[in-house]
Amino acid sequence: xxxxxxxxxxxxxxxxxxxxxxxxxxxxxxxxxxxxxxxxxxxxxxxxxxxxxxxxxxxxxxxxxxxxxxxxxxxxxxxxxxxxxxxxxxxxxxxxxxxxxxxxxxxxxxxxxxxxxxxxxxxxxxxxxxxxxxxxxxxxxxxxxxxxxxxxxxxxxxxxxxxxxxxxxxxxxxxxxxxxxxxxxxxxxxxxxxxxxxxxxxxxxxxxxxxxxxxxxxxxxxxxxxxxxxxxxxxxxxxxxxxxxxxxxxxxxxxxxxxxxxxxxxx
Length: 267
What we know:
Layout: E1 14-27, E2 30-43, E3 47-51, H1 58-65, E4 73-78, E5 81-82, E6 90-93, H2 97-100, H3 107-112, H4 122-135, H5 151-164, E7 169-173, H6 181-198, E8 201-205, H7 209-215, E9 218-223, E10 227-234, H8 250-266
Parallel strand pairs: 2-10, 3-8, 3-9, 6-7, 7-8
Antiparallel strand pairs: 1-2, 1-4, 4-5, 9-10
Helix pairs in contact: 4-5, 7-8
C-alpha cells in the first residue's frame, strides 16, 4: 500500500522530537530495560497515536515525554527545548478522569484550576474557560459537580481543563478507554474538533487500533522488548473524517489489518 505524508503536514515544522530515548529501571534484582531506543517526530498540528502490545512500555514513554520521569539516555524535546521536567507547553489528559477531577469543585472551577499560575488578565481567563467548555459541549454545566455528570461528560471536563490551558502539545493516555462505545466515538470526534479549533499537536497512547487509524495522521508502532519503534505509518484520509464513512473505507481496513499484524508480531 503506497502512502505519503498527509498533505496538511508536508511543510509543518517538528514540534515534539524523540531521539534515541531509552529508559531502564533499577531494581533489587538489577537493571530492567523497558525502552531501548525510540526515535520519532511529531509535527505541528499533527495527531499521532502510539500503539503496541500490552506491557511494551507505552505508559513509561508517556511519562518520559511529559517530564514525569527522567530518561536513561537519549532525549525528548519540545520546540527544540529539552524536556527534563513537566513542560509548560504541554498538558496531559489521563484515562481515569475520576481521579484527575476534583469532586468538591464545580465544572467551572475544575477548568479554572490550571490557569491560576498563568497570571492572565481576568477577561482572557474567563474567555478561555468559556471557550473550552463550549468546545467540549458543556456550556451551561458550569455549576454542576463532576459526580453529577456521566463518565463521558466528566472526561469532557478533563479535556476542557487541558485546552483552557492552551498547550502546544496535548498528551492523552488511553483517554476514551473508560467510556461506552458511543461516547467513545463522540470523544474521538471531539479530539479532531479540538485540533481544528485550537491548532494543537496531539499525542495519544491507545490500545484501540481502530481509534488510532481513525484519529491519526501518524501511528507509531512499538515492538520488541525492550521497546523500539518497529514502524511509523502515515495516514492521509483527509478531512473531515466521519465515523460512518471513514471506517468503511477499504484503506481503513487495510491499515487496521497492517497495524494489528505488527502488534501481534511484536507481542
